[in-house]
Each structure stands twice: as C-alpha cells, then as structure tokens.
Amino acid sequence: ARKRLRPLRTVVAWRGRAEWDQVMVGLYCGDSRLQQEALDRVSAWKSRYGPKMPLAVDCTAELIRCKVLDSSGRLKSHELILSYGLALVRFVNLITERKQKMVSIPLRQLAREVDIPIWVVDLRHELTHGKLPRLALCRKGCDVVLEWLRKTYWSRQLGNNLCEESEDEEEEEEQEGVEANAELDNDAWE
C-alpha cells in the first residue's frame, strides 16, 4: 500500500490570510497610526522570515515608513529627501537586480520590461549619481512606486479582493494561495 503524499506546505511569517489582508490595507490606508501598526507587523514578519521576506513587502514597508515620517513633521526637508531617496534607490536596484543576466543590462531596459516608469529610474540615477532632487519629486516617485507595488504584487496576492472571507473553508483555501504565492516572492512578481 502506497502512502498518499501530501503536498508540501510553505511556512510563512504571517498568521493567516486575515493578518495578510489587514497589513496590506493598513499599509495603503493613508492613516499614519494604522500604517505604523502595519509597519510594526511587517517588522515582526521580518524577524520571523529573515532574508526570505518578499522584496515587495520589504520595499512597500520602507516607502510607507518614509510617508509616515513625512507626515509626522519631525524631519527636515533634506532628511526626507535622503529617506525617500534611499527607499527609491533600493526599490529600483532590488527589483531590477533579479533581471540582470551575466551581461549587464541597462536599468532603463529592465524597468521597461517590468513596467516601471522610466522617470523613476532617472530619479534613482539622480539620487545615486547627481544632485539631490526636490522633495516633491521624491514624494511623487514614492507614490508611483507604491501604486506599482500595489498593482503588481499586493493585489495579485489578494486576488484583487480586499474583502475578508467569512467562511473558514474559503479562508483556508485563500491562505494556501497566499502561501503558494509567497514562494514566488522574489522572482515571479517581477
């Protein structure tokens, strides 16, 4: 008699579908208190998941952290530019890094392939090699990148549905989908 093999389950840092949904909604809600709570939850995930944390979650958290700091009024303009700048540079570098082959491919081409606006790559170039841009441009870049992450990663993870499922069975099936997608984290969502 052969034993029936069960599919391997992926271990993730979040408790379940409801926590995942709550964090996504919290990050994108616009209320700094709720955003900070979501950032705290992402920090807990990071401590559990370490380097396996999906790049999109990490980048989203860093960009939202900049927005929370900005809305707090505690940082000067120059400090905000540096904060936004680092988050934007990391985003472009991390997202395009996976697409690099043995031969160096220009960032603009890689960005085009994953549908990142070219001006965001140019902003990254200015932040890295040129004169620091205006704060308004950094804020705009952050908003555009957050929207890209929402559409390209978060909405796909949620199946384009922000509503929590009420039935346990459906919730369990959806959690399995989130867990399966967690394996795709760094490669597939590009």
TrEMBL record:
Q: Which GO terms describe its cellular component?
A: Las1 complex; preribosome, large subunit precursor
| Classification via InterPro entries | Las1 (IPR007174)
Q: Where is this region: Disordered?
A: 164-190
Q: Which GO terms describe its molecular function?
A: endonuclease activity
Q: Which GO terms describe its biological process?
A: maturation of 5.8S rRNA; maturation of LSU-rRNA
The cross-references to Pfam families, in alphabetical order and at most eight, read: Las1
Q: What is this protein called?
A: LAS1L protein
Q: Which organism is it from?
A: Haliaeetus albicilla (White-tailed sea-eagle)
Gene transcribed to yield this protein: Las1l_0
